[in-house]
Each structure stands twice: as C-alpha cells, then as structure tokens.
C-alpha cells in the first residue's frame, strides 16, 4: 500500500513533537489507544485565558498514518479556540492526508486525542467533560 | 554499489537464480511438449526433462525420484497431503495432530478437516516456538492417522525436533507429514534420516520459479498413498492430475541442484551476515530476538524493537524490504498469530520485524540495513509516548488504556 505524499511528509518531518508540562492547569493531555492495538497517541494542548490554544504537542506509537494524523492535528489546533478545536472531525483528517479505508481508525484516534485533551483541560479547570470519544464503541 | 530497494524478505519469496532461468528457457519454446505424450519426440523430451528434475530434487532430500509428486506449490502440497491422508486413511481413524504455529495452508486445511468430521489437536509451543515432544506423544490416540509439523517456521525460523517427531510417529504407526517449505534447500533435509513420510516444499523459496512445488510421498516402510484432490488424467501416480508444468519443474530441479552443491558455502556466508545483523541490532536497548536461538534456519532473524510499532518502522526503512509481525493494515488489528502463540504480548508482537537473507544478499546491504534500522528505531522512539513513559519508569502494564 502506498502512502500519500502528505502522510510521508508528516512522517518524515513530524510537526510539534514533544511534551508539555502536564502539571500546569492550562495544559490538557489526551492519551488514547493501547499498545496491544498497535497505536497510542498522546496529544497535549496549552490554552490561554481567551480559550485559545497557543501550543500543541504530540507523541505517537503507531504506523505512519497514525503519526501523520496526530502531527496534522497539532498543526490545526494551534491558534484555534477550544470550541473550534472540538469541531474538528476525523473525516477532515482523512481527506487532508488521503488516508485509505484501512487507515481511517488513525484519524478517529486523532480526533479522540483532541477531545480527550480538551476534556482533561476542562476537568482541570472545574468544568464538566463535554464529549464522548468516538472510538468508545 | 548498492541497488535500492534492498530485498531482505527472502522468507516471503526468493529471487530466481539466473542459472535456473537459463535451464528453464528452452522448455517454453523449443521443448514445449507435453510430458504425457508418449508417442512422439516432443513428449519424450519433456518427459526426460521432468525425470531429470526428479533426480535433482531426490538428491537434495535423499528420496527415490519416483516418490515425488509435482504440484503448483506448497499450499497445494499441504492441502493434498492433509486432505489426501484424511480420505485415504478414513478406515483407520480421523485424528490429526498439528501445532498452532503452522502455516495457514496447514491450519486452514485442518479447520476444513474438522468441518468434515475430523478431529484435530493443535499443540501449543513454548516461548521459543518449539513443541513439546511429550505432549505430542500424549496426544496420539488409536484414531490418530497423521502428525503434521512444519520443519522450519516461516516467521521466526525455529526448527522443530523433526527426527524425534519422526521416531514418535514410527513408534505409534502414525504418518508424519512436514511442511518443509522454508527448510528445503537451506539446511540438509533427509527424509530417510528424519523419518518423514510426506513432505511439502516449493520452488520460489529456494531460488526457483513460482507456481511449482512438490510433495514427497514415501513408497516403502510404509507405502503411503494420498487420495487425489483433483480429478483428471491420473498424472503423478494418480495422486495429482494435470499436465505437468515442464519449465517450472525443470526450474525446481535446477534450483534443487544448486542448493545441494552450494549449500555449505551459501549457509556459511548467510549465517555470518545474519549474526552480524543480529549482534548490531540487539545492541540497541529493549530489542529482543524472537524464537529459539540454536534450533533455527540460517537465513531468518525476527527481532522486536520495544515501544516502536512495526509498520511505522517499516515506513522509516522504506528502501529496505522486510516484513512485520504487526498487522495494522488488517481490519482486525491482530498481530502475528505465530508470535502470539509463543506467548508474546500483543504490543511486542506489533514491534517486530522479520529479516530474511539469501544467497544474493551482500555485506554492504546488511551494513546499510543495520545503520538505517538503528536510525529509524531511534527516531521513532523519540516520537513514542511509550518510550517516554518507559524512560520515566512508568510500568505500562499498570496504565489503564482507553479502549479502541
């Protein structure tokens, strides 16, 4: 199976790899997937007082499409408000990266990681978690 | 000069030896006859070529040339052996013993046998991939007609204790079938010394052509017969009908001859390269060799690089063709059943790569593979949240993973 140019680009030059300080109250961390399934994503966001995501970092254990999906997600998150981030749909990732059907779960995992990071941020700041992650079925 | 991509997936298939191609070519054009045409020189030339190939192959595995049945490959040979014995020996019993790490061509055929009312015992293997001979012997009943255990495993290269299995089979009057696809041509295989009654192998794993294989079927002590699985002209002593693939058979014969004459020198070179590859890669932290280290094929090495996913790793070494125990492409997300049968956890199975060397592999190619695999593993670990957690001393088994 051939990878798209965009997947290869994100895999070869992943954006925003790294770790944010999860002890800070304005940092939300999402850790989704499981080692025995062959993919784990950790996605973190840093949010300012205006609810704008000022920084995003990721680390991913998985195939090239999983790495690319999470790399792309961090690119998209930066500069968005939390509400705008919540609206990111996995199918947008599928389209942008031209993922084949067998790799759609990578995009679902990335969407879950975004929502999970936002939930973590909300809970840390005394808010109710808002959303159900997509992959929990 | 390195030529890219580098092929290190020789357990999937081998390139054909140019000497084999050369031997085959006349049988596509000049000597195109049907080996079953007994009444003219075209047929005679074809038959003569087939008979010569039988001798070349017989010399490699120490059998009588008449004991070879030509097929389309190892999958057909596996099917013919198991289904053929099940039908032929129905009056004696209906029980077959095999192992969980067999090739799918054996396992799925056994499942088919179960649907037909047969009984199949699937022996477990230990963490090194070996079956337990006591368990094997204990599984034999008065209904057992066949023991089907592969010679060398295609994923990890583990060689089962074939001679001991042969002795147990003989002692209990049970037939012993071995899928020796990965072993024939790579290590000395001797059906007499090994006590094998039926054996499957294939051309394209031993530098021969695809689409041709053989089934060895013992003719005395005991005389074995398998029921044909295709009806037709009664070729191959009535066990496999169909016009013989003369060029393919000539190629299989030539490939067998070269394997026999070059085995000692090829193997010494391949083992030296494989050992160097392993030594270098296992120097990396948290990398593990899979399968028994002593009893194994010379040309395969299966290594897990913990905290790195196999498919992602293959993408990082895309100018090296290898295979992975990970199965991220399949809908089930199930990693290798062979590694799992050896008791390996799913995450470690997802982190495995299989390297397969051949007589055409060069030292430069191995050097390139070593440095690029190391580089890719290091890079992907920088990217891996699991590696970071491991480095922080977090026990990954204690983490509650979000289901997915």
Automatic annotation (TrEMBL), chain A:
Leader peptide range in chain numbering: none
Entries under InterPro entries matching the protein: ISCU (IPR011339), NIF_FeS_clus_asmbl_NifU_N (IPR002871)
Gene3D superfamilies: 3.90.1010.10
CDD domains according to UniProt: IscU_like
Coiled-coil ranges (or none): none
Residue ranges annotated for the NIF system FeS cluster assembly NifU N-terminal domain, each copy included: 2-125
Domain of life: Bacteria
SUPFAM superfamilies: SufE/NifU
Family label: Belongs to the NifU family.
Function description: A scaffold on which IscS assembles Fe-S clusters. It is likely that Fe-S cluster coordination is flexible as the role of this complex is to build and then hand off Fe-S clusters.
The protein, known as: Iron-sulfur cluster assembly scaffold protein IscU
């Amino acid at each position: 199976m051939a990878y798209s140019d965009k997947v290869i680009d994100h895999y070869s030059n992943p954006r925003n790899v790294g770790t944010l300080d999860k002890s800070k109250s304005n940092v939300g961390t999402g850790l989704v997937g499981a080692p025995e399934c062959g993919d784990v994503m950790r996605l973190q966001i840093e949010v300012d007082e205006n609810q704008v995501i000022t920084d995003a970092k990721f680390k991913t254990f998985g195939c090239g499409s999983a790495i690319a999906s999470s790399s792309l997600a961090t690119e998209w998150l930066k500069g968005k408000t939390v509400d705008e981030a919540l609206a990111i749909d996995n199918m947008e990732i599928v389209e942008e990266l031209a993922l084949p059907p067998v790799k759609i779960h990578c995009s679902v995992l990335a969407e879950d990681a975004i929502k999970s990071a936002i939930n973590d941020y909300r809970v840390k700041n005394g808010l109710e978690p808002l959303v159900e992650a997509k992959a929990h079925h | 000069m390195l030529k890219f991509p580098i092929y290190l997936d020789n357990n999937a298939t081998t390139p054909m030896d140019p000497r084999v191609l050369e031997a085959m070519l006349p049988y596509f054009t000049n000597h195109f006859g049907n080996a079953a045409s007994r009444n003219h020189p075209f047929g005679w030339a074809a038959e003569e070529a087939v008979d010569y190939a039988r001798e070349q192959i017989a010399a490699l595995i120490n059998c009588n040339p008449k004991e070879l049945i030509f097929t389309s490959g190892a999958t057909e040979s596996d099917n013919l052996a198991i289904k053929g014995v099940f039908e032929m020996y129905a009056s004696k019993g209906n029980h077959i013993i095999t192992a969980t790490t067999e090739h799918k061509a054996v396992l799925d055929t056994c499942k088919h046998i179960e649907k037909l009312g047969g009984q199949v015992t699937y022996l477990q293997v230990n963490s090194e991939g070996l079956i337990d001979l006591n368990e094997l012997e204990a599984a034999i009943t008065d209904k057992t007609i066949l023991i089907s255990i592969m010679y060398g495993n295609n994923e990890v290269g583990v060689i089962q204790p074939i001679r001991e299995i042969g002795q147990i089979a003989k002692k209990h009057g049970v037939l012993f079938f071995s899928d020796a696809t990965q072993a024939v041509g790579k290590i000395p295989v001797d059906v007499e010394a090994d006590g094998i009654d039926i054996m499957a192998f294939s051309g394209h794993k031993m530098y021969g052509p695809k689409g041709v294989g053989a089934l060895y079927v013992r003719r005395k002590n005991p005389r074995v017969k398998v029921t044909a699985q295709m009806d037709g002209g009664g070729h191959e002593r009535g066990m496999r009908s169909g016009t013989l693939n003369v060029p393919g058979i000539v190629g299989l014969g030539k490939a067998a001859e070269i394997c026999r004459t070059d085995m000692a020198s090829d193997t010494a070179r391949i083992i030296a390269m494989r050992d160097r590859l392993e030594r270098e890669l296992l120097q990396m932290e948290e990398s593990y060799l899979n399968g028994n280290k002593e009893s194994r094929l010379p040309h395969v090495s299966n290594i897990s690089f913990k905290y790195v996913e196999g498919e992602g790793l293959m993408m990082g070494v895309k100018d090296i063709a290898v295979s992975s125990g990970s199965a991220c492409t399949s809908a089930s997300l199930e990693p290798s059943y062979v590694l799992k049968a050896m008791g390996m956890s799913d995450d470690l199975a997802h982190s495995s790569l299989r390297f397969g060397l051949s007589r055409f592999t060069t030292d430069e190619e191995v050097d390139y593979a070593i440095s690029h695999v190391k580089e890719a593993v290091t890079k992907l670990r920088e990217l891996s949240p699991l590696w970071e957690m491991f480095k922080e001393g977090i026990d990954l088994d204690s983490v509650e993973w979000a289901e997915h």
